[in-house]
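hi! just following up on the protien thing from before. the input was this:
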Amino acid sequence: QVQPVESGGGSVKAGDSLRLSCTVPGFTSNSCGVEWYRQAAGKQREWVSAISPRDTTTYAHSVKGRFTLSQDKAKDTVYLQMDSLKPEDTATYSCGTIGGNWCQANAWGQGTQVTVSS
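and the predicted 3d structure came back as:
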């Protein structure tokens, strides 16, 4: 079992940008997709975005047009570029692998905190 490692969070102002990273050794060779979730304090976890092994991306309506997923397969890393951030984007962002048995067996990452002030 592999645990993803997220990084790149921070405290920014509305309108700023951040780029989150999710590194999962082996996810490329095991043909996994990667998805991001976020959870704000006192709220349910919310699905944010996903990228497939063939680079197909999907986004939640709340972030579509502002967030962009990409992946560097040589580094087993997925990037979540977040632009035009809003206070409602404040949350802990976590990533995980999806797909076959190896992908499903992995744990979720510890998450990285994103705080957006108005």
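The helical segments are 101-104.
The CA atoms of residues 26 and 76 lie 7 Å apart.
cheers
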